[in-house]
Each structure stands twice: as structure tokens, then as C-alpha cells.
Design brief:
The chain contains three helices and no strands. The chain is mostly helical. Helix 2 crosses helix 3.
């Protein structure tokens, strides 16, 4: 696999996730993002984690289920 193709793939996924958040004003669950993009909730969580580490997004709400 060409490294530039791999980087482009991840860059596109990052951009897609960010676009989803902007379109919904940042209020989405990973499951909702995954459904919109056709990827798993786990994949979205991984991408969000990388975006947080890069300082591109901030997670502001966590809700507990009792």
C-alpha cells in the first residue's frame, strides 16, 4: 500500500468526522457519527481519540447510565 494513499484515507476520515460534528453543532454520539459515515462506533471512538490528542476536538460531555 502506498503511504500517501494511507495518509489520504485517514485524513478523509478525520475530515468526515469533523464535518459531521460541525453540521450538527458538535452534539453527536460516536454511534450517530458511525451511522452517518458507514463505519463502526469503535472506529469513530478511535478517530475521536486521535483528534483529541491532536487538539482538533474537545469532548465536553459524558453521560453515565444507571
Amino acid at each position: 500500500m502506498d503511504l500517501s494513499t494511507s495518509v489520504d484515507f485517514w485524513s478523509e476520515l478525520d475530515a468526515d468526522v469533523l464535518r459531521c460534528l460541525v453540521e450538527r453543532h458538535g452534539e453527536m454520539t460516536p454511534a450517530e457519527i458511525g451511522r452517518d459515515l458507514g463505519i463502526s462506533e469503535g472506529a469513530v471512538c478511535s478517530i475521536l481519540g486521535m483528534l483529541v490528542e491532536a487538539g482538533r476536538v474537545r469532548i465536553c460531555s459524558v453521560e453515565g447510565i444507571v
